[in-house]
From TrEMBL:
<dbReference type="GO" id="GO:0003746">
    <property type="term" value="F:translation elongation factor activity"/>
</dbReference>
<dbReference type="InterPro" id="IPR001437">
    <property type="entry name" value="Tscrpt_elong_fac_GreA/B_C"/>
</dbReference>
<dbReference type="InterPro" id="IPR029462">
    <property type="entry name" value="Rnk_N"/>
</dbReference>
<keyword id="KW-0251">Elongation factor</keyword>
<dbReference type="Pfam" id="PF14760">
    <property type="entry name" value="Rnk_N"/>
</dbReference>
<dbReference type="GO" id="GO:0003677">
    <property type="term" value="F:DNA binding"/>
</dbReference>
<feature type="domain" description="Transcription elongation factor GreA/GreB C-terminal">
    <location>
        <begin position="50"/>
        <end position="124"/>
    </location>
</feature>
<dbReference type="InterPro" id="IPR036953">
    <property type="entry name" value="GreA/GreB_C_sf"/>
</dbReference>
<protein>
    <submittedName>
        <fullName>Transcription elongation factor GreAB</fullName>
    </submittedName>
</protein>
<feature type="domain" description="Regulator of nucleoside diphosphate kinase N-terminal">
    <location>
        <begin position="5"/>
        <end position="44"/>
    </location>
</feature>
<keyword id="KW-0648">Protein biosynthesis</keyword>
<dbReference type="GO" id="GO:0032784">
    <property type="term" value="P:regulation of DNA-templated transcription elongation"/>
</dbReference>
<dbReference type="GO" id="GO:0070063">
    <property type="term" value="F:RNA polymerase binding"/>
</dbReference>
<dbReference type="Pfam" id="PF01272">
    <property type="entry name" value="GreA_GreB"/>
</dbReference>
<dbReference type="GO" id="GO:0006354">
    <property type="term" value="P:DNA-templated transcription elongation"/>
</dbReference>
<dbReference type="InterPro" id="IPR023459">
    <property type="entry name" value="Tscrpt_elong_fac_GreA/B_fam"/>
</dbReference>
Length: 126
């Protein structure tokens, strides 16, 4: 695997995700990866997150490099997936992978079809 890109998350997102990781049983399959992402993240104040960085509630357009397929999803907490159109949980492997990335960054993602590289194309905050 290539060196992981730098990521940034807000104190609020960190607190919400850590709280869920501490209380959710059983833990999601990607819990170790998500905890690793949180541990290496640059944590910033809620109002200091740049507009081009993926956070909870962000509408994210990303591309799978190998296929060129592009998707737009809203990163959310597991409890919000059913209420959000095109929602994807931060507890899903792809959700954990994109958390904290900025536009133009790429990361390797362990998908059901094997490892794939994705690129963040656009980030919008509501």
């Amino acid at each position: 695997m290539n060196q992981q890109p730098e990521i940034m998350i807000t104190k609020k997102d960190l607190g919400q995700i850590e709280s869920l990781l501490a209380t959710t049983k059983p833990l999601p399959d990607c819990a170790d990866e998500l905890e690793g992402e949180l541990a290496r993240a640059n944590v910033v104040a809620n109002d200091a997150l740049p507009a081009n960085v993926v956070a909870l509630g962000s509408k994210v357009t990303f591309k799978i490099i190998a296929t060129g397929a592009t998707f737009t999803k809203v990163l959310c907490l597991p409890s919000d997936v059913s209420q959000i159109d095109e929602g994807i949980s931060v507890f899903a492997p792809i959700g954990a992978a994109i958390l904290g990335l900025s536009e133009g960054q790429q990361i390797d993602w362990d998908s059901p079809r094997g490892q794939q590289r994705i690129e963040i194309i656009k980030v919008a905050h509501n």
